[in-house]
Amino acid sequence: MALYEHTFLARQDISTQQVDALVEKFKEILVENGGSVGKVENWGLRTATYRIKKNRKAHYIMMNVDAPSAAVAEMERQMRINDDVLRYMTIRVEAHDDEPSAMMKKNDRDDRPRRDNSRDGGRDERPRRSPSQQSDERSEAGE
């Protein structure tokens, strides 16, 4: 059987319990057709990059799937029929990662010290220009 990573987006106005029910429904479809589902990650309600069917937000879910292509095709067919599923994407992979995906990991930006926690109160180290210096620069620029 082939290994897949399957991600789908569900409408923003359904509850988390309804999202879980969708995941269980798609798991059943895969199991009935000879496949299995490994890790399931719920990335939560996130803002979409662009509007999809008049929705600005969506529930993002990622599943690691080990199934024959016929089972994946049937699951995708059921997703096309379901009004709660906005988009889906299935990618064939060589191996599944056991660790959390990049969406679930803590950003490395969070580890950096905040700028406003510094001793100078978050101010820039460069000197401020006086209003007379600013007007001189404008006159030199031809404004």
Provide a descriptive summary of the structure in words:
The chain has a domain of 92 residues: Alpha-Beta Plaits. The chain has 143 residues and is α+β, with helices and mostly antiparallel strands. The mean pLDDT is 82. The longest helix has 17 residues. It starts with a strand and ends with a helix. It is elongated and about 75 Å long. Strands 2-3-1-4 form a four-stranded antiparallel β-sheet, with helices on one face. The chain contains three helices and four strands, in the order βαββαβα.
Short description:
With 143 residues, the protein is an alpha+beta fold.
The CATH topology annotation of the domain at 2-93 reads as Alpha-Beta Plaits
SSE sequence, one letter per element: EHEEHEH
Instruction: Assign an overall shape.
Output: elongated
CATH class of the domain at 2-93, please?
Alpha Beta
Approximate helicity band: 25-40%
Structural class label? alpha+beta
Number of alpha- plus pi-helical segments: 3
Content of β-strand: 25-35%
- Computed over alpha carbons, the radius of gyration is 25 Å
The name of the CATH superfamily of the domain at 2-93 reads: Ribosomal protein S6/Translation elongation factor EF1B
The parts where pLDDT drops under 50 for at least 5 residues are none
Per DSSP E runs of 2 or more residues, the count of β-strands stands at: 4
